[in-house]
């Protein structure tokens, strides 16, 4: 699965790059990212592609591919489509749907659909995501024992299962004025339903800093740095610190973009992976 998804991402990237060679008249261009995160509980490697499909000056239909590899045996792949439009020249309204698949450390495949809606201005963000996993349980371990009473043999025990946890999150963001870098602070709350256990409730604080275009070896690139802290009643505290490079594909636009238009190609933020509950 890893190799097939990476091959798909690579082929899509080369195809879009070839298509974009004559795309100087287009406002919004595809790009890829590559980076990683170091955390208090695990480390992650991630690559992603943002792929415009249809566009006008004030609207954009796009595709999004993401691959994430865990420092443990797990991984996750995501693919989806989204739409954004600029409303009254001062706010971006958008919606998206993503298909997610995660292989857990127990080598179980769990799938879900993510539905999201967002509103963005140059300085503020508001976003909500709903996570709808498949309902089937996956066996983790079977623990049984037998004992004899008289002439009868009894078997007792309990199996352990895991499955995706349905839930949602809401995030609000604010730009912090700083020259030469796009610095934004985000605050989020989340809730996930846990079968046969207390529901998960928590909060997340996220800081994102992104550079302006930097020319490296005749290629314009950007760098993004992230710091994230979250706490909930199930997983307690966790922290992640990450960095990634953003590489545009094809020729850059002949047209200058407004500050609001530059946000049309930001990848929508959602939970870092499928939340898994055990029962």
Structure description:
By secondary structure, the protein is mainly β. Helix content is 6%, strand content 63%. Strands 1-2-3-4-5-6-7-10-11-12-14-15 form a twelve-stranded antiparallel beta barrel. The longest helix is centred in the first third of the chain and has 18 residues. The protein starts with a helix and ends with a strand. The relative contact order is 0.19. The N terminus is likely disordered.
Topology:
Elements: H1 2-19, E1 31-39, E2 43-56, E3 59-70, E4 75-87, E5 91-103, E6 109-120, E7 124-133, E8 138-149, E9 152-164, E10 167-176, E11 181-192, E12 200-211, E13 214-216, E14 219-232, E15 236-248, E16 276-278
Antiparallel strand pairs: 1-2, 1-15, 2-3, 3-4, 4-5, 5-6, 6-7, 7-10, 8-9, 9-16, 10-11, 11-12, 12-14, 13-14, 14-15
